[in-house]
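Session log. Operator J.P. requested a structure for one protein chain; no other inputs attached. Running the standard single-chain path with token output.
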Amino acid sequence: MRISQIALIFLGLFITGCKQSIPTDDEMILHFNQHENAFNEIRDIIIQREDGCYYPPYRTDTLYGDDVLSLKGLSCKKRMRLDSLLHMIGCERVFYFGKNWQRKYGNDTIQTTTISIPYFTFGLSIGGTTKEYLYNPSLAKKPYLITSPQTDLNNLYHNTDKDTTFYKKIKGDWYIKLTHEN
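Structure written below.
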């Protein structure tokens, strides 16, 4: 009986000790500034994409076939460069909407306007917190854009029990986006 209680205590400590700490805005801005060229190179490669909505592919096994939406029209050289850049900035994936997707849904712009690079994710599929780097030239018109550089987005979502999304400008058209869902 005593051994099972000790095991439960250690299991509880292990689980609570494994919760990741959400990065502060200052940490994310510092990380962006240290790797700004890599972020901009990712943007420059992605903006040229005609198809797709994310990279790298989720599936590359032969049982289900390649994830062609992610790979269509992307040369091997650009794949290797994107892999290298994502590794350099410590992120796994980039989400975006290619030009053909925008034309299909009536937005005939000549560039991809939104690029999202998740940096921190914690939670389940039904709720959780995500903090990401966001490239969006039209974001300045959005509500919930935090303009005070002293305000950390982490403090804002802790003060509400509602689903929230906040944005904070880093530089140019790059932002931090925090999404919290209960």
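Operator note: The first helix runs from residue 2 to 17.
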